[in-house]
Amino acid sequence: MYNFDFEKPGTVADAVAALGADEAQALGGGQTLIPTLKQRLASPTVLVSLKGIAEMQGICAGDDGALCIGGATNHATVAAEGGAYPALAATAAHIGDPAVRNRGTIGGSLANNDPSACYPAAALGSGATIVTNTRQIAADDYFQGMFTTALEEGEIITEVRFPVPEKANYQKFVQPASRFALVGVFVAKYADGVRVAITGASNDGVFRWAEAEAALSANFAPDALDGLSLSGDDMISDLHGTGAYRAHLCGVMTKRAVAAAA
Amino acid sequence: MAQVSMTVNGKAASGEVEGRTLLSSFLRDQLKLTGTHVGCDTSQCGACVVHVDGVAVKSCTMLAAEADGAEVATIEGQANADGSLNVIQQAFQDHHGLQCGFCTPGMVMSAAALLKDNPKPSETEVREYLEGNICRCTGYHNIIKAIMAASGQDVGAIAAE
User: Fold this and answer.
1) Does A21 lie in the same domain as A120?
2) For position A102, which CATH number holds?
3) DSSP string, B92-155
């Protein structure tokens, strides 16, 4: 690791000020960023920890019935206290391993937008709102491709608001070495329709499967997906699975998610 | 360089660290607590697991500065007050839960974190909890057996000696 200065502000305002420094970088739980720094793939001059900001911690119920999660809330807390949205809590409970879940944060995961991470699928599949220090961003506008988001330099995810669906489920086909999703599908049934978000598969990062959403909105049953398929042409292809294999898994995991949705 | 202070195994500890100093490096190089092992250094293997404010973390993937002010527990603080092995450590010995021993500090610390939250875990729960702890010697069976035994459960039915 190249060296850097470490700061741990106690308020969002102080964190925004600290991130104004040249080559400053926000630090959530560090479960991706610290390994990245070790490989010298990033060289910030200042690392600004967001873990000391009390207003970014914890879970609460919003006025509109949404589940609101502070940006610096770790996965273990969402797993333990997110019971108002069981499918989201279950998703958090299977990210990484227990020690990783005790450090990694929802804001960090969404800001990084790893193409194989679980939380992007949950946020997009739920039509969540990403709240930052300056604005609110709809999930549909937030995810802009692999490791790319709508966040500006120095913008901080302070909270994520999840509308709670009637039914939902996340199915992850685990890549056996990394434990990330080889393909992960989040299905959520709302009063106004079904959302299907897929992670791990596409070269463009997390995406919604519109045909599956239309079919499931008409008939929320696994066999409503019969005959639907995705092309493997633009899917990630590596030694763990070809694009065609991932495309096939998208259908399989979507069916499983619908069958398991509760 | 910055000053960090924390409580390690119940005793005050402090030192000068760089921003990039890992908690594992601080424990091993400055406090000379070399029971915390660094295996992969990529947060995969779990040999470096310690407790920070009561929860298991991978100390190779946390900065020493992030632990400023925290309560840290390492393998060196696990034995009983009289120096004898604690229940989990003794169970690892009794059930051959280790061979080379490199992963053992992390296994014991993860086991302690599990049993604190879930005093009577099922075999499946133990196996799932150890997802982030890799052992290349034992094949895991005896580690599972040791943790089940440490929780006071009958281990006669658990597979594979």
Assistant:
1) yes
2) 3.30.465.10
3) HHHTT--SS-SSHHHHHHHHHHHHHH-SS--HHHHHHHGGG---SSS-SHHHHHHHHHHTT---
